[in-house]
Design a protein that fits this description.
Blueprint lengths: L1 H12 L6 H139 L19 E3 L2 E6 L9 H9 L4 E2 L5 H10 L5 E9 L2 E4 L20 E6 L4 E6 L5 E7 L4
Parallel strand pairs: 4-8
Antiparallel strand pairs: 1-2, 2-8, 3-8, 4-5, 4-6, 6-7
Helix pairs in contact: 1-2
């Protein structure tokens, strides 16, 4: 309103200097024109303001829409990123599970193979067991037959039939053996070409169900010494073991006067010198005659 009054004053001062009625008329016309112009100007100003406001509003609306669109795109990107991460994690788990499954399949295959191998081995063991049982049965049969044969042989050896009859007369030692007290002795005195090392001489005695002689007392020692008229070296069941003189029955040589010289030496065995009653230490690989001993039959 103040601005319009100022306009009116400006219009009044610009009025023409005519007679008052005309001036009034002119003033009225000018006023009307100014008023119209003022309204027009005001309307135009309002229009321009509205016109200026509308682009700003549209720009704001567009800006708001862009912001909303950008926000939506950001949310979408976050969702897509989370989805990608979830897919990657899922894919990783699938890969791990696939690898574990493959490992389990491989282990299962290995266990199946091992089980098959164990079944095969079990079958082989069953076959071997059966074969061993058959062999044992055969051995038992042969052993029984051998025992019967040995028993018959023992009967024939120790209880031979009297000449021209069916009666038997039993003796303490079999033919070819010499009896003294509770033992039977076989003096093996071949020529030098037939003589043996200590181990072979012992094997010969074992083949005759006996062993190299073990001298237990002076009476037995004297009997053995006086049996053979010629001087000679005979293997007896005495050798060095762990730095000691030991008999083949596991006992130690305790008679100090019998111990041969030099002191016990590994790889040495003892010979008995006939007609002299001496026990001598020699190398076990030397070849000599030998004496076997077995228990006499009690009749």
């Amino acid at each position: 309103m103040a601005e319009e009054e100022v306009n009116y004053a400006s219009v009044v001062f610009k009025a023409k200097n005519n007679s008052p009625p005309e001036a009034k008329k002119e003033e009225d016309i000018v006023y009307d024109e100014v008023k119209v112009r003022s309204e027009t100007t005001q309307q135009t100003g309002d229009t321009d303001a509205s016109a200026g406001f509308l682009p700003d509003k549209k720009a704001n609306n567009r800006r708001r829409r862009y912001q909303q669109l950008a926000c939506c795109l950001g949310v979408l990107c976050v969702i897509l990123l989370l989805g990608v991460i979830a897919v990657c994690v899922y894919q990783s788990k699938i890969t791990n599970l696939t690898a574990e499954n493959q490992n389990l399949k491989t282990q299962n295959q290995n266990l199946t193979t091992q089980n098959q191998n164990l079944k095969t081995q079990n079958q082989e063991l069953k076959t071997q067991k059966k074969n061993l049982e058959e062999k044992i049965q055969d051995m038992e049969t042969k052993q029984n037959e051998l025992n019967v044969s040995r028993a018959q042989w023992s009967i024939n050896a120790y209880c031979p039939l009297k000449s021209g009859g069916s009666e038997r007369q039993c003796v303490p030692c079999q033919n070819g053996w010499n009896n003294f007290q509770s033992g039977c002795y076989a003096f093996n005195n071949p020529e030098p070409a037939g003589q043996k090392p200590w181990d072979e001489a012992r094997e010969d005695c074992k083949g005759k169900s006996s062993d190299l002689v073990v001298i237990t007392d002076e009476q037995e020692k004297s009997y053995i010494s006086n049996w053979y008229s010629r001087s000679g070296h005979f293997w007896i069941g005495l050798r060095v073991e762990d730095g000691k003189w030991k008999w083949v029955d596991g006992s130690d040589l305790t008679e100090e006067s019998w111990k041969p010289q030099p002191p016990p030496t590994e790889g040495h065995c003892a010979t008995f010198v006939q007609n002299r009653g001496l026990i001598k230490s020699v190398n076990c690989s030397d070849k000599h005659q030998w004496i076997c001993e077995q228990k006499a039959l009690t009749v």
